[in-house]
Amino acid sequence: MSNDSEGKSGNRKPQILKGFRDYLPEHMRLRQQIIGKFRAVFESHGFEPLDTPVLEYLEVLTGKAGENEKLMYGFEDHGGRKIGLRYDLTVPLARVVAMHQAHIPLPFKRYHIAPVWRAEKPQRGRFREFWQCDADIAGAPSALADAEILAILGESLDAVGLPNYTIQVSHRQLLARVAVWAGIEEGLAGQVYRSVDKLAKIGPDAVVAEMVEGGVEQPAAAKALRLLVEASASDDALGFIRDSLGDDPVADTALAELQEIFEVLPSMGITGKAVFDPTLARGLDYYTGPVFEAVVEEPRIGSVAGGGRYEDLIGSFANRTITATGVSLGLERIIEVVREFDLLPGDGGSADVLVVTMPGAAAYAASVASQFRQAGFRTELSSQPNRSVGDQLKYGSKKGIRFAVIGGEAERESQQVALKDLESGEQRTMSVHEVIQSLQQAE
Amino acid sequence: MSNDSEGKSGNRKPQILKGFRDYLPEHMRLRQQIIGKFRAVFESHGFEPLDTPVLEYLEVLTGKAGENEKLMYGFEDHGGRKIGLRYDLTVPLARVVAMHQAHIPLPFKRYHIAPVWRAEKPQRGRFREFWQCDADIAGAPSALADAEILAILGESLDAVGLPNYTIQVSHRQLLARVAVWAGIEEGLAGQVYRSVDKLAKIGPDAVVAEMVEGGVEQPAAAKALRLLVEASASDDALGFIRDSLGDDPVADTALAELQEIFEVLPSMGITGKAVFDPTLARGLDYYTGPVFEAVVEEPRIGSVAGGGRYEDLIGSFANRTITATGVSLGLERIIEVVREFDLLPGDGGSADVLVVTMPGAAAYAASVASQFRQAGFRTELSSQPNRSVGDQLKYGSKKGIRFAVIGGEAERESQQVALKDLESGEQRTMSVHEVIQSLQQAE
Question: Which of A18, A25, A10 has the alpha carbon at shortest distance from B53?
Fold first, then answer.
């Protein structure tokens, strides 16, 4: 990051850090709309909201997520404590479950929608501050829990109108057993996950090369990858792998879990969207069971969400094993897609009605605005009583407000106002009551 | 803070920083309910949502808010940039308005609901991470804008059922002219504001003493304070000050602005709640016009919100004067009050219905749960298919879920389930459709 020179010049310049951005109103309304839809899905499944501090002890944050930790914002506070900004919402969940064991009945189904920070090299569509929408179940070892997470993922993507997504599903234990079957040492499983995870991005040769660089023997690396790719291409990938591995109790358990997940998904309303993809690995170190990722192929957007089962992360804080499974929806990517493809209806701008304020008639305008609000209309009272009516209307148009209401001293007595359609320019004078009725009918 | 020793011991202990806290589900639901009500008020007035990065350049944050800045969390990032966590939402607004002038039509009415950080000495009810709910109007010099902010403040407090609050209103220019009238140098106005602001907390003698310590002559300090206190006690405080100051154009303008505010407020639905209180000063440096504070006297809770007009803050970034006025609602204090006095109805817990999962009948349970969700019930599918029905019901009771639905293989054919009321213990067997109907009628 030494090539960044921003911030060294300038004096009280209104500047923003590279990799960060303001969420202006139009963007925020879309953001709130999408977050609202995710929340509705999560809550419909009985998931509960959780929030945690942005700042944590550095030692709480470290040792959990491999690569991502290097990108952590860490520093010393006034009291000399080493602290950091959270880089995901999973480690805080683990800490919370461990700290509040007495008050949290298990299984604990929680969602958490909040920003996280990673000092990544800024690039198009990649930010140093970004939001995650996570739903996790802690304390339920059943594959039914994984299936529910997958159902929630599908419902969430459906809720925002995302087209043509596929949820790829695999299993870390299966991948581990394929590696062992191919002759790779068990201790190198992490290297296998990280390399195979890049298959779609860098291709099979580079994946094998990376594994070799990480200490895997070339023939074993090639053999493992070949099986995964061949299984992928087969009509019955699960059967293909089962037959290839032969008698392997660990692999059989993993296969049975996947089978259970795929059997129950249709009853959860997920059909066809979720597929077994043996080449899916996920990069994060802490997954131990089923893993999954939602990708949009057409248009070619890539991954919009991912997750899986992690058995040891919560246990690293609590003094017992508490297995968990969950998904993280990448809000920024999803917003980008929704915006680019116009997947959700418009938000109606900042207000439905602008009440123009005439000199000496501010009180009348204020009371008219109150009446519109009581009738359920988002109503902006113009804050520019000293500007001309024309200027105030121009402001309304700029803001995309459809209707303006104009009433001066003369109209006060009769409780009349002029209603002006800022799109068509049409204007009629009526009582406040009639205007409200006509707008309600127009809705 | 050298007496804090937390954080120096411990190894992967699940610990949280002092002055920070987790927002567990029950608290979060109340929080979301309150934030939702504030948002509804803000949006009904045509205010638009804004969010900004948590991290800003240190030089953007400094030089704006006096005392509060000492409490800032500041550090160097990986690129050697001096950065900090925002300590309020007003400075970010000023930066945004200056940076995005071309895209933001003025007046800009925005709300911002988000956490801020201050390294204050932790104490009961005071946190280092806390949320503010701000509504501001930038670019509208009219007192009508101040009045609207006051109306929004009142409506927000009403929306969460806050009892017996008073909105105290005063004017910085009036206070400044009282100080000059009493013989205090104009340059010491800041000292006067900060000291008078503490009147309710420390009493008149201590206020005078503090002013004297800050360089004000004792007789002048006493004279200014006496006028403010006497005006406070009078039936016509505005008139009392006008008569005392005599011919003073600056004071007259301030008085006229206050008059205008109080004249329009009833048309905005605010009657009796807002009162002129000449002893109100507000501690922050940047206010330049009307200032206000909402206090709850009975029960004795104190300040729950405050704000005012600030003319120069946005101009310190933009190269022109953009006057603004706004209010900040203290979410933490308000939540505490709502919780303590049970001002809002219960939130209904995590789910309406728990669907018990019987061995071998997970798919049936999942499809029953889907049907309940489609009918609009928040429905938790039990993630413990391997636990007894009794254990699953116990979990439902612990979570405060009112109804459990139980269906095994035997019921699948007939689409029947048992509906159990976890409060009364009553249980009946019906079709899924009948259960949904009976729950809808019970609502």
Answer: A18
Protein fold of B353-442:
Rossmann fold (3.40.50)
Instruction: Judge: B17–A55 Cβ closer than 8 Å, yes or no.
Output: yes
Q: Are B53 and A267 within 8 A, CB to CB?
A: no
Confirm if A224 and A188 have CB atoms less than 8 A apart: no
CA distance linking residue B306 with residue B277, whole number of Å? 14
How many C-beta atoms lie closer than 10 Å to residue B428's C-beta? 12
Between chains, do A51 and B98 touch, taking CB under 8 Å as contact?
no
Cβ–Cβ gap B28/A12 under 8 Å? no
CA–CA dist B425, B400 (Å, integer): 14
Question: Does the beta-carbon distance from B318 to A14 stay under 8 Å?
Answer: yes
Closest Cα in chain B, distance from residue A286 (Å) = 16
Beta carbons of A73 and B50 less than 8 Å apart: no
pLDDT at A413 over 90: no
CA distance A337 to A161: 10
Number of A/B CB contacts below 8 angstroms equals 306
pLDDT tens-digit profile, chain B (443 residues): 333 333 333 347 899 999 999 999 999 999 999 999 999 999 999 999 999 999 999 999 987 666 667 889 999 998 899 999 999 999 999 999 999 998 999 999 999 999 999 998 877 778 999 999 999 999 999 999 999 999 999 999 999 999 889 999 999 999 999 999 999 999 998 899 889 989 988 999 999 999 999 999 999 999 999 999 999 999 999 999 999 999 999 999 999 999 999 999 999 999 889 999 999 988 878 899 999 999 998 777 889 999 999 999 998 898 889 999 999 999 999 999 999 888 998 777 899 999 999 888 999 999 999 999 999 999 999 999 999 999 999 999 999 999 999 988 788 888 899 999 999 999 999 999 999 999 999 87
| Residue B168 Cα, gap to closest chain A Cα (Å) | 21
Chain Cα centroid distance, residue A240: 34
Distance from CA of B42 to the nearest CA of A (A): 9
Q: Do B144 and A81 touch (CB under 8 A)?
A: no
Alpha helix stretches (DSSP H) within A20-89: 25-44, 58-61
* Helical (H) or strand (E) element with B307: strand B302-310
Q: Tell me if chain B has a CB within 8 Å of the CB of A367.
A: yes
Residues B311 and B327: their CA atoms lie apart, in Å, by: 14
A117 φ, ψ (degrees, to nearest 5): -130, 135
* Contact indicator for B355, B436 with CB cutoff of 8 Å: no
Q: From the CA of A10, how many Å to the nearest CA of chain B?
A: 9
Nearest to B171 by CA among B26, B259, B289, B268: B289
Please report the residues numbered 249 through 308 in chain B whose beta carbons come closer than 8 angstroms to any beta carbon of chain A: 260, 263-264, 266-269
The answer to whether the Cβ–Cβ distance between A370 and B267 falls below 8 Å is: yes
In this structure, are residues A136 and A73 in contact, taking their beta carbons and an 8 Å threshold? no
Distance from A67 to chain B by nearest Cα, in Å?
16
Q: Which residues of A fall within a CB distance of 8 Å from B42?
A: none
Rounded distance between C-alpha atoms, residue A329 and residue A334, angstroms: 8
Minimum CA–CA partner of A324 in chain B: B383
Measured over the CA atoms of residue B32, residue A40, residue B347 and residue A56, the dihedral's sign is negative
Q: Can you read off the two tokens belonging to residue A418?
A: 């002029």
Taking a C-beta distance cutoff of 8 angstroms, is the pair A316, A99 a contact?
Answer: no
This prediction has a pTM of 0.94
